[in-house]
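Let us practice reading a record.
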Amino acid sequence: MGVAVSSWPLARAVALRGQIGVVSGTALDLVLARRLQLGDIGGHIAEALAHFPIKDMAERVWERYFVPGGKAEESAFKSKPLPAVEPGKAAVELNVVASFVEVFLAKHGHDGAIGINLLEKIQLPTVPAIFGAMLAGVDYVLMGAGIPRAIPGVLDQLAIGQVTELRVDVVGPDGDTHAITTFDPSTILGTDPINLKRPKFLAIVTSHTLAQMLAKKITPPADGFVIEHNTAGGHNAPPRGTMQLTDDGQPIYGERDIPDLAKFRELGLPFWLAGSEGTHAKLKEALENGAQGVQIGTAFAFCNESGILPHYKADIIQKSLRGKVNVYTDAKASPTGFPFKVVQLDGTMSVSSVYENRKRICDLGYLRTTYLKEDGSFGYRCASEPVEDFVTKGGDIADTVGRKCVCNGLMVTVGLGQWRKGEGAEIPLVTAGDAVAELARYVKPGETGYSSDDVIDIVLGLAPDNTEANRVYLEGLLESAKA
């Protein structure tokens, strides 16, 4: 669901209904820094920081980024440290505090379950981000977009305050290698014994082969799985085997990409199904196949409580109601190399002319690749940065073709986009799953939006699907217009 789409208001609303509410953990340090620079609208961050266990750390973050009344609209957000193998103190503190704030606000005032969803591809801030979430009592950690074999052990170590290491992928001169990033909880909480609740770990996977490895060949194993179909939004796993593309450049998925649920049942661990699962019929089918339930992304992404700016939601909902919305699975958009689903929308990077006129820049750095320089130090490059910079750093110019700045684009979608002097506002990028074409089921005829409750009621079978009612309603409007 991108960045800050499933933010704390949405996750909290879902948890209040007895479901697992999940906050997006991607780039939460940046999200917090920019929300503070907008003046902490509603005072929610201040409330959360009042409960952070290390008061002087919370104060440092506040003083560094808070702008009373909010920054001027046409002024730039202050930058924050970029992810690095060896981050400075300010970067670590911001990551810890940001995750704490998001999870605290999602959990505040109820006993429902809250999870945090992270990308394995974004490795550098992972451990301090998880620790901050654990300080707030997070119940689940979910991770996909890679092979998160180390995370169950990380959770064990952080729960008892051990120094925690995470292997980081690095491109070396002679092939792939790795580095180690280290996090010491005592730098946050001091040397007193630490005993935090250990959240359950759910790996987001597409195949039983990966699930078997995470269930049987690592210690401790994963606690369960989210089995994600390629119709889900955001990053998709590449098709198995040699990548083949349609005539318009979209990846072709086949029978090998359909998960074998019988193999998952044999593992004896709970699993949920994801990707176009937001209907009562799909929930019933999932339960009949042994799943605990379904994970819903796209339907929630466009509900009232999501972080997407209202005008984008309204536009996409109206296009969906009229059968005019289109999602393109872009094999090149993301610097990660994973296919990325992009909603085709005027004025966004989905439009070739808009994308080509944007000045390339990489100033957020979440999807950069870490590489070894000739002197043995670490360098960072991104296929979406200026082409000459990428090539100078040893990158292949072919990898830059069609790459979009996912980091900056997704921030615009949730109202946190950068303003650049002489260039103006950053260009948005909207992601959603294929189910964005079916939002009519959640919208009551004559209305322009819907709530998370509407989604939950329909999936649980507590309210009727509105698809047919909307078809009749729109046909009636058309007939009236003709008359």
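A brief commentary: Residues 89-107 form the longest helix (19 residues).
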